[in-house]
Amino acid sequence: MSFLVTIVAFIIVFGLLVSVHEYGHMFFAKRAGIMCPEFAIGMGPKIFSFRKNETLYTIRLLPVGGYVRMAGDGLEEPLVKPGMHVKIKVNDKDEITHIILDDQHKFQQIEAIEVKSCDFKDDLFVEGVTSYDQERHHYSIAKKAYYVENGSLIQIAPRDRQFTHKKPFQKFLTLFAGPLFNFLLALVLFIGLAYFQGTPTNGVDKVGKDSPAEHAGLKSGDKIVKIDNKKTNDQDAISNALKKSKGDKVKLTVDRDGKQKTFNVKPKKEEVKLSKTQKETKYLLGYQPSTEHTLFKPIVDGFNRTIFAVKIVLTAIVGMIASIFTGHFSLNMLNGPVGIYHNVDTVVKTGIINLISWTALLSVNLGLMNLLPIPALDGGRILFVFYEAIFRKPLNKKAETAIIAVGAIFVLILMVLVTWNDIQRYFL
To answer: How many CA atoms lie within 13 A of 19 on its CB side?
Structure first.
């Protein structure tokens, strides 16, 4: 039963993170007028698909990511290449309206052609030898033209609907939107948790056994109003005051049944693990704060927790990159799908609240990792956009394609190594 729960939780967490990330790309792409032929969750063979308007939505077998295929983004494979034999239908202007790639059609007045040359990005043409006269012909592609494949119509993107022909700012928004939506997802989850759980106050709910708070004499219902003569109206103020104490004794002023009492307390020093390589020192009194349910405080709390999550993940990423140069890098610093599954299995046993909080943290991690300046990731492609904006021209297409290909190979090899490392760590 627990195995089934873990599988379901993993599918939901993975699906949510990837769907939100890719939807961010597609949301801004479509608003920029960019055609999106496919929205995919997962990689590899299709296991489910449906078409809505011009976009094919697919779920694929391997849970290792997802993608939005955008027309003219330099990553799509053209369906028609030189040397192929296809059938075409033309209009009265001798422009191609349909390129037929299978036999599941009922078109009349079509021509068979052997493609000699074609361009579906800039000049939009197909040139080839037709079977009826064995002559070479040049056909322009109509403004509204389609591939016909597996009985479906797939629109051929006109020049003005291709990513490559959009302005740098539109490209930037489209690429940055994936990570941005991951940050927004984390914010929504943290705000939702704050509304559900309530936000911590300066009140004492439960006192931990054998804790500094218990030794000092704090009781449930107390309100900590001052630490060393500094007012503490909320839990953040208490945490900051304890942090400044560096573990030295502090004077607590509490409100108990309308009367003020003072206690001298020495906070307990505790190392909290933020990531596999980073720790944070906290000074704790050992009590559980009371919470309150208000209208606006959960929103503020959600923003604070999101910013803190960004700080944690960014610190871990910087530490990981630094470890490459210091020789301390290890694949154990990274998690692939197998590692994520193992973490889901661990977290889901602690309850739904922790799973939601961990999902929010993972969403921040996905957003920041995708902003790394690696050519195959969003951050690397954003660098190409900056180049275009600065020099007023795009990078040479062949060079850009080659750089992205090298980046994709690097990411693929890294993913394989991390996955194998995860399997060895957790299952062998």
So the answer is: 10
DSSP state of 247: T
Burial call 170-187: b when 16+ CB within 10 Å, e when fewer: bbbbbbbbbbbbbbbbbb
292 pairs with which residues across the strands? 199
Residue 68 maps to a domain = no
Among 282, 226, 231, 270, which residue's Cα sits nearest to residue 250?
Answer: 226
Which pair of tokens denotes residue 160? Answer: 């003005």
Residue 22 falls in the annotated catalytic set: yes
E strand residue ranges, 19-54: 38-52
22, 38, 111, 400: the active-site residue: 22
* Dihedral angle of Cα 98, 101, 107, 109, to the nearest 10 degrees: 70
d(CA 68, CA 175): 11
In a domain, 78, yes or no: no
pTM: 0.86
Contact 225, 253 (CB under 8 A): yes
How confident is the model over 327-332, as a mean pLDDT?
Answer: 77
Find, among 234, 256, 236, 233, the residue nearest to 244 by Cα.
236
- Residue 123 phi/psi, 5-degree rounding, is -85, -20
Q: Pick from 134, 161, 188: which residue ends a domain?
A: 161
275-313 confidence digits (pLDDT tens): 555 667 888 888 999 999 999 999 999 999 999 999 988
